[in-house]
Automatic annotation (TrEMBL):
Keywords for the protein's UniProt record, in alphabetical order: Membrane, Transmembrane, Transmembrane helix
Keyword Transmembrane appears in the UniProt entry: yes
Entry's transmembrane regions: 26-47, 59-81, 88-107, 113-132, 139-162, 168-191
Descriptive protein name: Energy-coupling factor transport system substrate-specific component
UniProt entry tagged with the keyword Transmembrane helix: yes
């Protein structure tokens, strides 16, 4: 990616915005990095609380804890919705995982970073599917669900090889639903909330949300 100060076209308020492939500005890189670092701290804190919050779910219905694991998915979706550039979801999600790994995680550095990359890729694929031109709530939900599917596949292959079919299904469905709600819908509303404060005024996402409101 490289930096440029070319202005963005913000005349369209329907949820469609033109993409400029590979055209990142300095402010895009800075804000994506801030989001990634902040998300990484949240990821680390969620890791500390994970056994406490997930144990009751594991005991009640093994696999359903994947719904809460979707907290680890929001970075990619949020980064993509704010920056609206190719690679934003992967960059933000992976950076968040790197920060979490550097601070310290019980799952190890490599596997934490690898998971962040896979989860960011899941969200990125949805934004790519819409050619980086649609940033509506349904698209955000799909991006979160796709990140959840990526998480489920990755986790089941690395952490639960040979698990029973029932567990596989429950884990996958829970991850997708959790991703859609927590990473997808909540990230979309978070962007609108940030836009209302003027914090995203230098981004199409901020200006568009304020016009729509």
């Amino acid at each position: 990616m490289h930096a440029t100060l070319a202005p963005q076209n913000t005349s369209n308020t329907s949820g469609t915005a033109p993409a400029r492939i590979g055209n990142w500005r300095v402010v895009d890189i800075v804000v994506a990095s801030v989001l990634g670092v902040a998300a990484g701290v949240v990821f680390w804190a969620w890791g500390l609380a994970w056994e406490t919050v997930s144990s009751p779910l594991k005991a009640a219905l093994p696999g359903v804890q994947a719904g809460l694991a979707a907290v680890w998915l929001f970075a990619g979706v949020l980064g993509g919705l704010v920056i609206r550039k190719p690679g934003a979801a992967i960059y933000t999600s992976t950076l968040a995982a790197v920060v979490s790994a550097l601070v310290g995680t019980q799952w190890g550095g490599f596997l934490t970073i690898e998971a962040g990359l896979v989860q960011g890729l899941g969200a990125e694929l949805i934004f790519l599917l819409f050619l980086y031109r649609r940033w509506t709530l349904p698209v955000a939900i799909l991006a979160g669900a796709s990140a959840g599917l990526g998480m489920a596949i990755n986790d089941l292959l690395l952490w639960y090889p040979g698990a029973a079919t029932q567990f596989l299904l429950i884990y996958t469905v829970s991850a997708i639903i959790g991703g859609a709600v927590i990473a997808g819908a909540l990230s979309w509303f978070a962007v609108r909330g940030l836009a209302a404060t003027g914090a995203l005024s230098r981004f199409a996402s901020g200006r568009q949300a304020r016009i729509a409101a």
